[in-house]
Design goal:
Number of helices: 6
Distance between the termini: 10 Å
Number of strands: 0
Structural class: mainly alpha
Number of domains: 1
Order of helices and strands: HHHHHH
Strand content: under 5%
């Protein structure tokens, strides 16, 4: 994986973190999100964040070093929502976030078979 591809994944991760934070802290309801179950939206968001985090730092396998910050981000979002009058804290949202990470872990063997994503050099990356 080239440095440019890694930077592209990192840019995508940064943008995704900001977008998730925006959607989870704004009082505005969006039609796209309303058409999908809230828990499914959480799981899909964290599935996407897991993928981007994994390929943003290919020198580290997808382990606790990546999982803990992702779950911590989900907890942070819920803590922020606790203080917002138009949002609420939800343990079930955190479980849905964790489910998204677990779905990524379970799908990782399939992801690694994709030709464009197959090559990862864990020793010689940034």
């Amino acid at each position: 994986m080239t440095k440019n591809i890694i930077y592209l994944f990192r840019s995508g991760l940064f943008c995704a973190v900001l977008v998730v934070l925006y959607f989870t802290t704004t009082p505005t309801e969006y039609d796209i999100a309303e058409n999908v179950s809230d828990k499914v939206s959480h799981a899909m968001a964290f599935l996407t964040l897991s993928f981007l985090a994994d390929y943003s730092f290919p020198q580290v396998k997808f382990s606790w070093e990546k999982i803990c910050p992702l779950i911590g981000y989900g907890i942070l979002i819920e803590c922020i929502q606790y203080f917002l009058p138009y949002r609420s804290f939800s343990i079930f949202d955190m479980l849905a976030d964790t489910a998204g990470v677990m779905i990524y872990i379970l799908s990782l063997p399939l992801v690694m078979q994709m030709p464009a994503l197959k090559k990862r050099d864990f020793e010689n990356q940034i």
